[in-house]
Structure formats: C-alpha cells, structure tokens
Design brief:
This protein has 416 residues and is of the alpha+beta class. Helices cover 16% and strands 28% of the residues. It has two domains: 93 residues, SH3 type barrels (Roll); 289 residues, Fumarylacetoacetase-like, C-terminal domain (Fumarylacetoacetate hydrolase, domain 2), CATH 3.90.850.10. The chain binds calcium ion. Calcium ion binds next to loops.
C-alpha cells in the first residue's frame, strides 16, 4: 500500500472520494475563471495553473501555462514520467505543514463553486463488450441460452467504434432520442421517441500515449498507454438498437449520448487496487496473453432518481468482473496496426456482475421489462421515464484507503 508519512492539510472526510491517495485531474471554470486544469482534494480543487505560476512545480519539466487549458491533452502529452512526478510533488505540497495557509489562498477553490467540463478532447471512442455476464444475459434474451455467447466472444475482446462528438460530461441533461423502431406487434417500422431508453454501467480508460499507424501494442506495453479512467454511462435506446443492429452493429441507438464523470482517476492512483481477473478458458491467442494483475477492484453503484424524489440504488457491480483486461483490449485494438491517440476513450462495455442485483443495465435488471423495478415512491420502472435522473458512482477501498471517481449524473428530458 501507498505510504504517506505526513497528514494532508486539506480536510478530507473519511468517505470522500478525493483523498490524498487519489488526486484526479479535471477541467474547471467559473465566472471570471477560464477553463483550467485542477486536481480534486477533499471538497476543494487545486488550481494547477496558480501553483505553477507561483513556482511550486519549478523542478518539473512542464511547459509554462500548460494548465490554463480547455483540455488535459497537452499535459497528458508530456508523458508518464511527468504524470508520476507531478503526483508525487502534489502529495508533498499537500502534506507539508508550512503550506497549510494555501487553503485560504486563491490557488484553492471549493468544488461546489466551480463548473466541471469534459476533461479531455476525445478524438476517437471505442466501446468494448467485455463482461461475460452482460454478453451472456443479452445473448440469452435475444438468441436463447444455448447460443448466448457468439463463437468469437472468448477469443477476442469484441468492440465497435462509437462516436466521440456526443460524449458529454456529468450534469449535462440529454433528450430522449427519436428513431425508427419495429414494435413487436407490428409488421411495419414506426418512427418516434424511443420507448425503451436504458443505461449501461461502464468504465472507460483514456489513452495517454500515441501509437503510430502500423504499430501494434503488446499487452506488456499497453499499460504505458493508459492515463486514467472515468465512469461511463453509455445511453442505449433498446428499441432503435434492436431494429438497426443487424448486420453492422450499433448506430443511432447508441450515438446520441454517452456521459462521463468529470474527474480522471490516474492509473498511478489505481495501482494499489489491482487484482487478478477471471480465469480465461479457452486459452487466448499469444498476442492476448498477459502476466500479473491487470484487473482493478473498483466498486460500482447506480442510482435512479425519479423527478422530485430521492436517489434509489438499483444495482451494484465491480470492474473486476470484466473478462477482458484493458491491456488485452488495447493489444487487440492495435493488433492490426490501428493507431491510437492521446485523449482517445475506450469504454469497457456494460459491467454486469454474477447475480441479478449486480446487472449493469435496465434491460438485464428488469429482464426486458418482465420484472419491473419498484421505487420507494411506489412507481415502477421497466425503462427510463422522462425527467428521471441516473447517477453512477465508482470507488475503491482497501484497509484505510479510499479513492473514488465522484459521480456521473444525468437527467433525461423529453424528446425535442
Ligand atoms: Ca455499451
């Protein structure tokens, strides 16, 4: 476990996601404060631009003004050694008693006074399908239990290319999408607002190092290309999806929005929550083999908040249930020479656990609407209703140490 000999001078509550062991990066602003990179600590944000201007990062090799920026991409581009050096430097700043007056300086803001923005400029976005439980559940519903998993599923991390333009940050509402659907009792498709609007509980990693066209990244090299992770809600219109997906896969049922949490938790912070992944059987091809613990123990929760009501927990899962690791996903993604770029985002696919209370979508939780969820106000949900708010949370705990991702919170508004 990470040992820090001194105590952080920013007050951090025991259940805070933003302990000294975390230090996630985000982009914040306020009236009179342009977009700037910051680090979350307790209820505060460290203004990295202020700390740099005031000489606190002088011994690091960071270009001047790099933190007064709309995105983290430029900082990420300075390389892994810089990420780790800055993290270590921030940990010493926050634990050296002589700096405690900085809490009242203009270098620290209260989080609740700031607006958070999408942290990276996402060039390309890929969505994997890496949870065996999710793939089995969906396959069982659509093809029956015997053909639940397609023959390729255990041999490669299956994925599709998504759309980067509609990735939005927590807090930004979405409108119910409209589209073409084939109702079960109909012979002709209909057009209108989706009736089966769903969530997908996912995590995504952000690429921290480019690769060139033609180059393949091995599972061993893959972790050098990972900067950090966010929570990812991959909104899904099941009725549009079901009608359109054959033969080329997801399109308008998926690309109207995906929501991410604003704080990027670094792989450095997540390192102490590594764990072994599920046993892979059959044995994978050599380019997908890997050594060591490359899964992460990240607890996940989803809450549904009806209009005017309280948030109600509808499921609880864990990132470690994923069959395919991020290293394998990246190795597979680039095995044909496809290049990746800083800021690219790769989502995990819906993370369902082994039990019915740990499924990562309403499709599975309500088993296609057959078992509605009953909310504390007495109402039921098969899929989402207009004005519902969905909140996803993620955190890691081990002994006394807790780090977390905060939340991704999104309200569904009626179709435009
Ligand atoms: Ca998905």
């Amino acid at each position: 476990m990470e040992k820090l000999s001194k105590v952080c001078w920013v007050p951090v509550k025991e259940d805070s996601d933003f302990s000294i062991h975390n230090l996630p990066y985000g982009i914040f602003s306020a009236d009179g404060v342009p977009k700037t990179a910051g680090v979350a600590i307790g209820d505060y944000i460290m203004d990295l631009n202020w700390f740099q201007l005031n000489g606190y990062f002088n011994e690091l090799q960071l270009p001047e003004g790099i933190f007064r920026n709309e995105y983290l991409n430029d900082f990420i581009g300075t390389g892994k050694e810089n990420w780790t050096a800055l993290r270590t430097r921030i940990q010493s700043i926050l634990t050296e008693e002589e700096n405690s007056h900085l809490l009242r300086s203009t270098g620290m803001y209260r989080q609740d006074m700031m607006r958070m923005h999408i942290p990276v400029r996402v060039g390309d976005y890929t969505d994997f399908y890496s949870s065996e439980e999710h793939a089995t559940n969906v396959g069982t519903m659509f093809r029956g239990k015997d053909n639940a998993l397609m023959p390729n599923w255990k041999h490669m991390p299956v994925a599709y290319h998504g759309r980067a333009s509609s990735i939005i940050v927590s807090g930004q509402p979405i409108h119910r999408p409209k589209g073409q659907m084939m109702p079960p009792d109909s012979e002709k498709p209909v057009f209108g607002p989706s009736r089966l609007l769903d969530i997908e509980l996912e995590m995504a990693f952000i690429v921290g190092k480019d690769s060139s066209l033609g180059q393949s990244i091995s599972t061993e090299e893959a972790e050098d290309h990972l900067f950090g992770m966010v929570i990812f809600n991959d909104w899904s219109a099941r009725d549009i999806q079901k009608w359109e997906y054959v033969p080329l896969g997801p399109f308008l049922g998926k690309n109207f929005a995906s929501s991410i949490s604003p704080w990027v938790v670094t792989m450095d912070a997540l390192d102490q929550f590594r764990t072994h992944g599920p046993q892979q059987d059959p044995k994978v091809l050599p380019y997908l083999e890997y050594d060591g613990d490359k899964s992460y123990d990240i607890e996940l929760e989803v809450y549904l908040q009806p209009n005017g009501g309280e948030p109600f927990k509808i499921t609880k899962s864990n990132h470690k249930y994923l069959y395919w690791t991020m290293a394998q996903q990246l190795a597979h993604h680039t095995v044909n020479g496809c290049n990746i770029n800083i800021g690219d985002l790769c989502a995990s696919g819906t993370i369902s656990g082994p039990t019915p209370d740990s499924y990562g979508s309403l499709l599975e939780l309500t088993w296609r609407g057959e078992k509605p969820i009953r909310l504390p106000d007495g109402s039921e949900r098969k899929f989402l209703e207009d004005h519902d708010t969905v909140i996803m949370k993620a955190y890691c705990r081990k002994n006394e140490i807790r780090i977390g991702f905060g939340e991704v919170k999104t309200q569904l508004l009626p179709a435009l």
